[in-house]
Amino acid sequence: QVITGGHYDVDCRLEDPDGIVLYKEMKKQYDSFTFTASRNGTYKFCFSNEFSTFTHKTVYFDFQVGEDPPLFPSENRMESACVSIHEALKSVIDYQTHFRLREAQGRSRAEDLNTRVAYWSIGEAVILLVVSIGQVFLLKSFFSDKRTTTTRVAS
Amino acid sequence: GAGGTPGKGDGGAGLGVTGMEIGPSPFSGNYRTQLWDKQSESFLPSTPGLGMHVEVKDPDGKVVLSRQYGSEGRFTFTSHTPGEHQICLHSNSTRMALFAGGKLRVHLDIQVGEHTNNYPEIAAKDKLTELQLRARQLLDQVEQIQKEQNYQRYREERFRMTSESTNQRVLWWSIAQTIILILTGIWQMRHLKSFFEAKKLV
Prior knowledge:
Chain A: The chain crosses the membrane at residues 117-139. The structure holds two protein chains of two kinds. By secondary structure, chain A is an alpha+beta fold.
């Protein structure tokens, strides 16, 4: 998931050891991808921000591989109850991560907006003053020229 | 979590990690480096003699960890502030051919919070029974959940303060802008009126 930067999107690519592209998406804001690895080797993933002119991006990603190895070989009811609780708590932590990322992204957008509004307000105030003062002097200049023209015509 | 990242050129690799919880959070990173061998066109299995300098900065820019490790190692630190931490692995070796065409593959494994715990080790060290170990693991997880909830509470408080201050500023700005507008209008009228009176047009 993209947390900060520009339009909050990024390109992503995932390749297996043979170079076959398993996943490829352009300009996505968030996604999740599950697959079963068919063979051993180095899998490559790449996040690309080439399309962006000057914004840096912060991207959150995580990998979950396989299942948790059991802590103990024994298979009694207490152990399986503990495993269920463990998995449920993992799911709670996952949701918390999701909300933490959403909050970080929202905050980044808000700060971005704040900067833009600040610049715009200052610019607008400056333009307001310049135009108000400029109007008056422009108007005055109209009347100065017209008067001389009128005088010449009269004589 | 796990991930491998190839690095190029001078062997420096930077990584940003968002610190999660309020309250000290343990963090551990494992890394292993492999140097590209031009002759065999593959990565050597290990690079003895290559030194890596690890530097970690907390969200305030303060250096939390700055140490030299070998070509593979494990570094740990505890984060106390929520926010973006910067981890930089930098190779300062001049012996290794890390110039044009040189590549360095860095295997990096990062564990945060309760994932830093190695439960079989803890069981052996504290001599815990199966049930005690499971209980310890579940307690660790619940503690992490609580820390995260504290963090969200802190974030909500900051957000509320920011919202209220923004509201104030918007209010003052609007009043100020209206006043400037009115004053400018009055100035315009008076200036033009005196100008026209001087020109005997009014």
